[in-house]
Amino acid sequence: MISRRKFLAGAAALPVAIHPVLTRAQSARVPLAMPPLLDATRTRRFKLTAQRGTTDFLDAGASQTWGFNQPHLGPTLRLATGQSTAAEVLNTVDEPISVHWHGLLVPGDADGGPHQTISQGETWAPELAITQPASTAWYHTHVHESTARQVQKGLAGVLQIADGQDEARGLPIAYGIDDLTLVLQDRRFDRSGRISYDSGMADQMMGFMGDTMVVNGQVGRTAVVPKGIVRLRLINGSNARIYPLSMSDGREMHLIATDNGYLDRPIALHDLTIAPGERFEVLIDFSDERDIALVSAPNPNQMMGGMMGGGGGGTPFVVLPFSVDGALLAAKDRVPDDIGGSLPQADGTGASLRDISLDMPMGMGMMLRGGGNRFSVNGAAFDMEEINFDIPRGTVERWRITADMMMHPFHIHGVTFQVLSQGGRAPATQNTGWKDTVLVNGSAEVLVKFDQAASRDTPFMFHCHILEHEDGGMMGQFTVG
Ligand code: C2O
Ligand code: CU
Ligand code: CU
C-alpha cells in the first residue's frame, strides 16, 4: 500500500462545503421553475437542438452554458408507453455531442452512446419505441472523455414515460404544481459568479464536487407547493455527488418509484440516498402547511476512510426549501395504499455469473502499469474499439460488481435490473424496485435480462456514473444479439 501513500502525498486535498443557502436569493423567495414540458405523447415526435447560450446563475454575470432548446439544460420530454416516437436531435455547438436516453429500453442503435456522436450542424434521428412501463428517465450527452464537461455545461434533461394511468393510481399529475421534476446538481462558481469546471487531480479522482446546490439549473430558489400531497421526481444529474436525502423535520418520504418504474405500494422512508444517474419518485405530505426543506447529508463518498478529505467533508445542507401556499389545494390529500407496479422477484438461481470489478487508478496496478493513470473495469480501461463481451439476446445474468476505494454508482445501458444484494446483504429498501443504476459500496449483485439488441457498431455501455470516472475509463461495452 506504499503506492497509496504516494498518491496521497501527491494529491491536493480540496475540502468543499456546500453553501447551506444563498442568503440573498433565499430571502427573496424566488419560486423554483420547472423545465419546460415537451409533451410528445400526441405528436409522437419531438426535436431537441443542442445550443450555446448564457445563464446568469447568481445574478452576478453571465456564464457560457449549453442546453437543449434553451440556454441551459433541456425540456422535460414526455413520451407515451406503447408507441413509437420520432426523435430529432440537431447539434449546433462546436464539438461533437451525443444524446443517450438513460433509462429507455431501446436497441443500441437508438441508445445514443459514445459511438453515436453528432457533429456540429448534423442531425441524429432515432425512432424511440417505448415498450416499458411508466417511469422517470433522463437524457444526457455521452461522448467518451467529454461527458463530464459537457453535462456540466448543461447537456441533460428529464424524460417521462407516461401511461396515462396516474390518476387511477391516485398520484399527483399536475406538472410543476403537485408533480415536481427536480434535477439535482452541484456546481462551482468562480469569484465573478461564473460557473467553473476546472477539474484538478482531486476532482479527477473523487469526481467533481460543487460548492453550490443547483436545482433545475437554478440557485437559491424555493419550491412553492399546494397544501396536500406533492410528488417529487428526483433526478441526480450531478457529476459525482451522492445525496443522502431527508426532509428537514424528519417527515416521511413515500417512495413510489425507482429508476424504471412504480413499486407495488409506497414505502415510507426517512432517508433516501440518491447517487449520480439514479431517479426516485416520492410523495410528501404538505397538509400541515409547514414550510420545510429537502436536505442532504454531506457526500458520503470518502476515499480511504476520509484521509483524502475532498468530497467527504462538509456539513448537511439545504437542497430545496418548500413554501406551502395554503390557498392552493393539492388534488390529492392522501398517499395511496396501492400503486400497482410490479417488483422484480426472481432469485437468480441458474443465471450465469459475471464478475465486474471497478478499479481506481492507484494501488499496485497504477505503479506496475507504468503509472497508467486510468480508471478501469476488470483491469482494462475503456477502449472504443474493444467489445468487452457479447451476450445472447434473452439471456439472464447475475452480475457481481466489486469496487474499492470509493462508492461507485454502476449503470448498465439497455436493461433494467433487480438488485439482489448490496455489500453481501439484502438490498436497501429503496432499491427493491426496478433499477438501471445501483450504488456499489464494496459489492453489489444484480440480476439482468438482456432483451434489447445492440450490435458491434452501437454496443451498450456499462460504467460508473461518476462522470469523471466514466470519462477516465471506468466503462465497458457489450453487444446483445
Ligand atoms: Cu446516464 Cu451511460 O449513462
Ligand atoms: Cu444509460
Ligand atoms: Cu466510480
Strand percent estimate = 35-45%
CATH class categorisation of the largest domain: Mainly Beta
Q: How would you classify the helix and strand content by structural class?
A: mainly beta
Q: Could you tell me the number of beta strands?
A: 32
Which ions, cofactors or small ligands are bound in this entry?
A: CU-O-CU linkage, copper (II) ion
CATH superfamily grouping of the largest domain: Cupredoxins -  blue copper proteins
The total tally of domains equals 3
* Name of the CATH architecture of the largest domain: Sandwich
Distance linking N and C termini: 42 Å
The geometry reads as globular
Q: How many separate helices?
A: 7
The pLDDT mean sits at 91
The low-confidence runs, each spanning 5 or more residues with pLDDT under 50, are 1-17, 20-26, 305-312
Main beta-sheet annotation: 7 strands, mixed
Rg, alpha carbons: 21 Å
Kindly state the percentage of residues in helix: under 10%
CATH topology of the largest domain: Immunoglobulin-like
What report would you give on this structure?
By secondary structure, this protein is mainly β. The chain has three domains: 31-164, Immunoglobulin-like; 179-329, Cupredoxins -  blue copper proteins (Immunoglobulin-like); 352-480, Sandwich (Immunoglobulin-like). It is 9% helix and 38% strand. It has seven helices and 32 strands. Strands 11, 12, 13, 15, 17, 18 and 20 form a seven-stranded mixed beta sheet that branches. A five-stranded mixed beta sheet has the order 1-4-10-9-6, with no helix packed on it. A hairpin with a 7-residue loop joins strand 2 and strand 3. It starts with a helix and ends with a strand. Bound molecules: CU-O-CU linkage and copper (II) ion (CU) (2 copies). One copper (II) ion is lined by residues 408, 464, 466, 469, 474. Residues 408, 464, 466, 469, 474 line the site of one copper (II) ion.
